[in-house]
Hints:
Isopropylmalate Dehydrogenase; 42% helix; 11 helices; alpha/beta; two-stranded antiparallel sheet; ten-stranded mixed β-sheet
Amino acid sequence: MSSKIVLLPGDGIGPEVTAEAGLLIEQVARQYDLTLELKTELIGGAAIDASGEPLPQKSLDACRDADAIILGAVGGPKWDDPDAKVRPEQGLLAIRKELGLYANLRPVRVHPSLADASPLKPEYLQGVDIMVVRELTGGSYFGEKQEGDDFASDLCSYSREEIERVVIKAGHIARDRNSKLHVIDKANVMATSRLWRKVTDDVMREHFPDVEYEFMLVDAAAMFIISNPARFKVIVTENMFGDILTDETSMLVGSMGMLPSASLGAGKFGMYEPIHGSAPDIAGKGLANPFGMLASVAMMFDYSLDRKDIAQDIEQAISDCITNGECTADLGGKLNTSEAGEAVRTRLGQSSQSRAVAG
């Protein structure tokens, strides 16, 4: 059976880390005897330069026809004018909306070898293993907007259906992890947060009576992520709060270049990307850490292609590289982007050979 994967390299360091993703996918296809069809399309600033649109119809059509998407990053100084009618970020928002990708999953684990790279003391990081589930297509990012010289507004709105579907996804993850679900909101101020609480109560009673859950205000959550991050196992929250909190949790591991993400909808289809931005200041210099992107490839095999074994093998290969110092400078290593990607592929090949010998 063939699976179609679309690569959207985007801007800045996006093409560099996406190239490593493509090489890893090609190796996986050979190593595990899979038929994986790769296709590259444009998004973001590169798409604006080529077509005048941040998400050309050709790119969207290819994504609709695919089983999964690998996304680099979008944006950069060239397209930074906030008054511009067409901006790279519009392509990212549009693809989420058009493809119904309403749940963003961001796992946060601290590798023992990287504990000293975190701004927190190592003792605060013991047992940290968090999955943040961020609602992705509602809230103020997509609400009606008004903008003038003396007044502006961003409407934040949520429907019961939008809340239900993302809480159900988070509930399944919490059940699978045998852990508590933390629901992060601002219910003391915001009407949308109070609706989140009502709907969450209904969903958890009906679908997950065996799963413990707790509501927490976003300002308290921001504090506890720093003071006691291990208390969290699964977090679900609305779009803007999730955007902010996931960047905060990324610093627990010492580098945004480490963390992957998955944007999922109702079925198996998903879009996978590292959580870092386009980092135009280091673009083209071979300094970008590809591990977040390669871990995103692992998530793709887990969630969209039903190959958890491959996902675990990729994650182990990345972990082995970090343990042995085979990494980029942001993690204390000396490898460039392509060398770090090659190191992961080498480790992955060695794990396959070890299993063959053991068998």
